[in-house]
Amino acid sequence: MIRTSEIKDVAERVREIFEKKKLRPRSREVIKRRLSRLPLEESRIDEMINKAVEQFPREACIIASLYLNIRLRHRGLIVIGSYQEKPHTYIVLDGVIVDITADQFGGPRVYVGPIKEPWD
User: Is residue 86 part of a domain?
Assistant: First the structure.
């Protein structure tokens, strides 16, 4: 079981990478490999990654959560749920939500805590 403080540290580092638009080419390739399992064209995948980096945190929750999951060594479940009844993606790990994009809806910048409203 990973400690909450470790999860928060990783979440903060991933958030900083997106905020500074410093997602490395190697990291982009890892994300692309994960997304290539879905029925998406490669150009669409590149577009999704670029948009997530450029508009972060807006419309970046899927890509950011996927990369966060990779950085957490694939621990946790990527959840396609909602925040304030708006479609949203985040991670659930060891019974806690890990969310680095809830601020696009007025939520916290980084949230690592119990599963509760307004997440669903």
Answer: yes
Tell me: the pLDDT tens digits for 82-115? 999 999 999 999 999 999 999 999 999 999 999 9
Q: Do residues 4 and 112 lie in contact, with contact meaning Cβ atoms separated by under 8 Å? A: yes
Domain-located, residue 119: no
pTM, rounded to two decimals: 0.94
Q: Are 42 and 36 in contact (CB under 8 A)?
A: yes
User: How many domains is the chain built from?
Assistant: 1
pLDDT digits 0-9 by tens, 50-64: 999 999 999 999 999
- Residue 98, domain extent: 4-114
| Integer Cα distance of 32 and 29 in angstroms | 5
Token representation of residue 20: 């500074």
C-alpha 9/C-alpha 69 separation (Å) is 13
- The structure tokens 């949203």 sit at 88
